[in-house]
Design goal:
The complex is a heterodimer of chains A (151) and B (194). With 151 residues, chain A is mostly helical. Chain A has helices at 3-50, 57-72, 96-99, 101-115, 118-121, 129-147. In chain A, helix 2 (57-72) packs antiparallel against helix 4 (101-115). The radius of gyration of chain A is 20 Å and the shape is elongated. Chain A starts with a helix and ends with a helix. Chain B is elongated. The chains are: A mainly alpha (151), B mainly alpha (194). Chain A binds chain B through residues 39, 42-43, 45-46, 133-134, 136-142, 144, 150-151, and chain B through 38-40, 126-132, 145, 148-149, 152. Chain A: Residues 1-21 form the signal peptide.
């Protein structure tokens, strides 16, 4: 076989693998961005609840609405095969996700349900933030406990 | 064996006994709260602060408390540890008046691991915005993440130490026919000076 042809063939064979690797990287980056956005809005609510940020009804409502919007996104779909913490160093997603896909999805639905109604629930004063945060944070924790690496 | 006849002596003072049983209750309760407790970990935090207070007391008591409580009295060198370990395997009581040289290692390990556990707990951040350690915001997110990791591993270490503690107590009770639990309740133990 002519070397050039061999190289072309090797490249052609490798292309799907390269594409898959790029897909995997994109998925992990998207996940991290997704969590970051959740975190920024959770941080806003938590900061106001603790009094580190002055309570602002409009800002609290907006942060809660952002969380609702984020939980409408189908985030579990970003957890594609081959992107666990054992496949990629930058991933913190435990292989348990792929062993219990239904439960993992249910954990995300639980966050969506915790977020439902929160834009209205945070209105009316700083004291109303606590119960909302407990629900949202509890959903974060439950999923992190089972499916996030080392915690 | 050298030494006179065994006699009963009050080796554990009341404060040390209260310390021991309070610590036992708090550690077991907090271990369970950490593993299977509610997602709101407020109680876990408060019990943790209780453990800090107990550890501070024990540290102070180890310097100013009665003789059997003092670190300088019961923490011994390798020769004493090996010598006691040889004697320990025999099926009869050692009548030791306090923490034995081998037991001292367990005491130091337990206090050390618990000190690490409360420290990592103060700095841990599980990214749930409700159970964040009170000092987590004073360090970088990498550090608070590492604190969380070591807090989780620390729970396993504590489990191992507690199970070892219970196993050795059973070993003394069944093999050596020496009761170590009763003295920690009423303070009195059969001892022999040597």
């Amino acid at each position: 076989m002519i070397p050039v042809k061999a190289i072309a063939l090797a490249a052609a064979l490798a292309l799907p693998t390269l594409a898959a690797a790029q897909d995997a990287k994109d998925a992990v980056e998207a996940r991290h961005g997704f969590m970051k956005m959740l975190g920024i809005n959770m941080g806003q609510l938590a900061g106001m609840a603790k009094g580190e940020i002055a309570y602002d009804e409009a800002a609290a409502t907006l942060a809660a609405a952002n969380i609702v919007a984020l939980t409408q996104y189908d985030a579990p779909a970003l957890f594609v095969e081959g992107t666990s913490s054992e496949d990629m160093p930058e991933s913190e997603a435990l292989p348990a996700i792929w062993e219990n896909p239904d439960d993992f999805r249910a954990s995300f639905v639980a966050l969506r349900e915790a977020a439902a109604g929160s834009p209205d629930a945070v209105k009316g004063g700083q004291g109303n933030l606590g119960p909302v945060l407990q629900k949202l944070g509890g959903a974060c924790k439950n999923c992190h406990d089972d499916y996030r690496k080392d915690d | 064996m050298a030494g006179g006849a065994a006699h009963r002596e009050r080796i554990w003072d009341p404060a040390l006994r209260v310390f021991h049983w309070t610590l036992a209750v708090l550690v077991i309760a907090n271990w369970l709260l950490g593993k299977i407790g509610p997602s709101d970990m407020t109680l876990h935090f408060w019990l943790g602060y209780g453990v800090i207070a107990l550890l501070v007391f024990r540290l102070v008591w180890g310097f100013v408390g009665p003789a059997t409580a003092r670190f300088t009295r019961f923490v011994r060198g390798p020769r004493a540890v090996v010598s006691y370990a040889r004697e320990m395997i025999h099926p009869h009581p050692t009548y030791w008046p306090g923490h034995s040289p081998v037991g001292a290692l367990a005491v130091v390990a337990m206090l050390g691991v618990l000190a690490l556990q409360v420290t990592t707990g103060l700095f841990a951040d599980p990214d749930d915005y409700i159970n964040v350690g009170p000092l987590a915001s004073t360090v970088s997110s990498e550090t608070s993440r590492m604190a969380l990791r070591w807090h989780n591993r620390g729970a396993d270490l504590i489990l191992i130490l507690v199970l070892l503690h219970w196993a050795v107590i059973l070993f003394y009770r069944l093999w050596k026919r020496e009761d170590l639990v009763r003295p920690m309740i009423d303070g009195w133990k059969w001892v022999r000076r040597r």
